[in-house]
Amino acid sequence: MVGFKPTEVPPTATVKFLGAGTAACIADLITFPLDTAKVRLQIQGESQGAIRTSSTGAQYRGVMGTILTMVKTEGPGSLYNGLVAGLQRQMSFASVRIGLYDSVKQFYTKGSEHAGIGSRLLAGCTTGALAVGVAQPTDVVKVRFQAQARAGGSRRYQGTMDAYKTIAREEGLRGLWKGTSPNVARNAIVNCAELVTYDLIKDALLKAHLMTDDLPCHFTSAFGAGFCTTIIASPVDVVKTRYMNSASGQYASAGHCALTMLRKEGPQAFYKGFMPSFLRLGSWNVVMFVTYEQLKRALMAARASREAPF
After folding, report:
1. Which of 36, 127, 149, 194 lies at a CB distance of 3.0 to 4.6 Å from 54, suitable for a disulfide?
2. Which residues form the Solcar repeats (predicted)?
3. Does the residue 139 lie in any domain?
4. 167 membership: H or E segment, kind and range
């Protein structure tokens, strides 16, 4: 057995909630430069009406090309633009969409141990949509920070709190909830693809006795979930990023944004940044799920140790 052993008592909802948020923050710290590169590639080709992206005029080519160009023109710190908002987002967002997934799944199955794919999909959609309702402003600020370039002019936002205040002042409170509809769609899809795929792959590996419930099983399941999620969610993710980063009035709606992309840039625009998306989601899923599984066991072991009589 690699890592912490499974505990006899299943993890509580509180342990899952805290463990999911913490694991997601750790995963974000490690993979954030890939996410920033993905955002820059996704908004490349957007009209000048968007919120200022790259004042350097740099063109991005591929994952490593984007990262190297950003480091050269803006400095290494640019890869972590929006990190504070990103961590705020994960602590509130992942805690809900991942931490509450098992509880909501049990609700839909009425406590039954056997959960069909329908119950899993419903649980994934529910927690994904709920999480957006909680964390949308943090996502808007994160995307804006990742999109803005540092070189060649003053920065639009001077800090995380300044970004919240500036967006609320210039665009109203609705500005902080910009892109909610595509984000709900994206995260319902992502949650279903990510959590349900992880759930199904893990169950299949355990039932076939190909692996035991430890790190290699969690790693394999998480990598498969990341690949499936990227293929399914990329088009909605690109639209969400473009719409959130757009200037007020540039697009009438998320649907208008999608149609404008299709007309001006063709269908391939919906898969812009696919490789960094996969590298980011694949690595993020591996780090997050492996950390999450170990945190749940560690927290429950610590709780059992504390409650055990001397």
Report:
1. 149
2. 11-107, 115-204, 213-298
3. yes
4. helix 160-171
What is the per-residue pLDDT for 57? 52
Range of the domain at 217: 182-265
Last residue of a domain, one of 126, 159, 178: 178
Total domains in the chain come to 3
Q: What are phi and psi of 148, to 5 degrees?
A: -80, 140
Give the integer Cα–Cα distance in Å for 264 and 285: 33
Cβ–Cβ under 8 Å, residues 185 and 253: no
What's the burial of 216, exposed, middle or buried (CB within 10 Å: 0-12/13-18/19+)?
Answer: middle
Task: For 164-211, write each residue's pLDDT tens digit.
Answer: 998 999 988 888 888 888 788 778 888 888 999 999 999 999 999 999
Angle 192-195-197 from CA coordinates, rounded to 5°: 80
For position 156, what pLDDT does the model report? 74
Query: Residue 245: is it exposed, middle or buried by C-beta count within 10 angstroms (0-12/13-18/19+)?
Result: buried
Same domain, 16 and 75: yes
Instruction: Note the pLDDT of residue 197.
Output: 93
